[in-house]
Fold this sequence. Notes:
This protein is of the alpha+beta class. The chain has ten helices and nine strands. The strands form two sheets. Strands 1-7-2-5-8-9 form a six-stranded antiparallel beta sheet. A three-stranded antiparallel beta sheet has the order 4-3-6, with helices on one face. It is globular. This is AraC-like DNA-binding protein. It comes from Pedobacter africanus.
Amino acid sequence: MIRATPEIVQPASEQSFLLRAFGDEAFKAPYHFHVEYELTLILNGKGKRYIGNHMADFKAGDMVLVGANLPHCWKLVPEKQSDARAIVIQFTADFLGEHFFDKPENAAIRSMFQKAVNGIWFDTESFTKVYAAILEMQQQDSFNALISFLKILYQLSQSQKVVLLDKEPEVVRLSLVEQKRINPVLAYLVENFRKQVSLNEAAALTNMTTNAFCKYFKKMTRKTFMEMVIQYRLNYATQQLIETDKPVSDIAFSSGFTDVSHFYKVFKSKMGISPLGYRKKFMVAY
């Protein structure tokens, strides 16, 4: 079973931050977290993005800044996309010294870092500018690359078209001990919601009884365990309804539902429209 354990990030010896380009292997990483901030640019590929308790579709041109210890992962849908690519920059809050970003000149960047606890999505215009700057930065020596990266951070801090993703990041505000307790459960959901999810297995990850676990999970996430499972499944199903022509029954099963009539009932209850009605609505819109 995959657990959301801390990832150890090791910058190159000549740099204070880490810039890496990935192929489809970047999207095989499990739901995980680390003390470093992470700026991720999706160059190619599409699927589901998980930032804390937030789920959304992603595609080429997607760019997100993830705060320290905020669990995250990107999953390709469909899973096999050999041309999928991403660029990732990771850095600590004090990568230029403990108080560097406390300077008044860095107020905008410091404010952005504070908001990154939610995960920040940036618009396509920002993506284009940052990607061009990164391509240029990759050709520079370490000193000029550092200056370019600072300019990128400032440019991002000035962006007006941003979206805070996990708007109630309760997990991030917990102590590291509590994060290590709840994150394996969230990882279990991300990796298994399309399969048969077990309350007993989830509770076992926290070494709690099922009754104690249900109360604990609701306190941590403000949702019951099954509400979270259904949220994940419906989120996946809506993407499949829009982007594929698969029969609704196939989508129901591939999203984790074991009964088609139950899927219809839950979908209409939560979305206010039937699965077919939802599909037709978007067919007309596009």
